[in-house]
Specification:
Helix content: 25-40%
Strand content: 35-45%
Number of helices: 4
Order of helices and strands: HHEHEEHEEEE
Low-confidence stretches: 1-15
Shape: globular
Mean pLDDT: 90
Radius of gyration: 17 Å
């Protein structure tokens, strides 16, 4: 019995059973909370691939779509828009994550709090093969 338990433990740790889609979406959502810094921003942007699917960002009453090849524009705009928040820690107050019935879409909603107030971040995901991409980010204050 101990041998079976050890085998199951090793298989789980080595990823034989794999992560669920829900786990993967939660891991991506983790990159949109915590202390905002250049590393965290790069980690969030790493979940975007505009050559596969455009990214729509809505915040502060504006919406912009970043198409193929627009990652440099996205990084520039994100750095500008978030510069006054760099170093701020966004604590998570609540989270919902759901995988669509089709298994190819998903959504996460984060309720965040910082010294600047509260915000809700909504992420919409699309599956691209084995990976999940962020397709839409909506930030509400």
């Amino acid at each position: 019995m101990l041998v079976i338990g050890a085998g199951v433990g090793i298989a789980y740790v080595s990823g034989v059973f794999g992560e669920s889609d829900q786990d993967r979406l939660n891991a991506i959502a983790d990159d949109f909370r915590g202390e905002l810094n250049a590393v965290r921003l790069d980690a969030a942007i790493a979940h975007v691939d505009t050559s596969v699917a455009p990214l729509e960002v809505s915040a502060q009453g504006f919406t912009r779509v970043y198409g193929n090849g627009a990652i440099p524009d996205l990084k520039r705009d994100a750095n500008r828009a978030l510069s006054s928040y760099m170093g701020t820690t966004f604590r998570e107050l609540g989270r919902t994550v759901a995988v669509g019935d089709d298994g190819r879409s998903g959504q996460a909603t984060l309720q965040l709090l910082s010294e600047h107030g509260s915000a809700t971040v909504e992420l919409t995901f699309a599956r691209d093969g084995e990976r999940w991409l962020v397709r839409r980010v909506i930030i509400r204050r």
